[in-house]
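Typical record was shown:
=====
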Amino acid sequence: MQPSKQDVIDNVQDLVCLPEIYLNVRELLEDPASSINDFAEVVSGDIALTAKVLRIANSAFFGFATKIDSIMRAISIMGTGQLHDLVLASSAVDTFKGIPGNIENMEQFWKKSIYCGVVAQLIGSKCNSLDSERFFVIGLLSHIGHLVFCIQLPELARAAIERSKVEAVPLYIIEREMMGFDYAELGSSLLKAWSLPEAFVEPIGCQLNPGKASTFPLESSAIHIANHVSMVKNLGLNPEQQIPPISSIAWQLTELSKDDLGALQTEGDKHFEEAQMLLM
């Protein structure tokens, strides 16, 4: 008998926790009495994180108009919400660095995740979202459920990956058959257990079926399409057997069409290297 989804989540929470500095930033975000000085003090206490946030903020990928030379200025220009998202992105990558590579090649995993985030942000920008940077972080975290499988059910995770390759069937279908739930459900449940905002929880849970999203359907659709573009890039020119078609709901909500996919991949390729250097 396989463990339930909740059993897997409960167990992984004991092994994988977001760092204290992220939790402190989130606590400040939820405190209406907090000030920019409070955020700056918390982030500045971690030299490596400070450097990473400033690199990201000054990158052409995020495109802020003026040079950001301090965390205080970063918060003033980006706002506390975007600072939270950048700290979350950095924390998530660092949190899962210790996973053994015999099941999932972690370097390749994060490359694929970063690429998905890049394309998701491009879609957010094309949809005139005022918060397109958040699309990047949601895309970055979209496959985190796979890592939970690797930690808690390593043998099943390895077997599922091999079956997906041999049978040319999407991995999430194999996961549902072997474990009773898929990486999207598991990732969403983990983020909910970590008390992340619903703006992250729902899109990741609905990425395979954006029509189920009630509050964040655009974000869910963007991740859905970004995953498709990412898989086409990784699987080559004839990926039809392993990649399900894009949902009609996603086309409708983003107002994109199949003709836009090539341009998204071209733009994604252009921004990917920079995003990778910023986070890895």
Q: What stands out?
A: The chain has two domains: 5-16+99-279, 18-95. The CA atoms of residues 170 and 243 lie 6 Å apart. The chain has a mean pLDDT of 87.
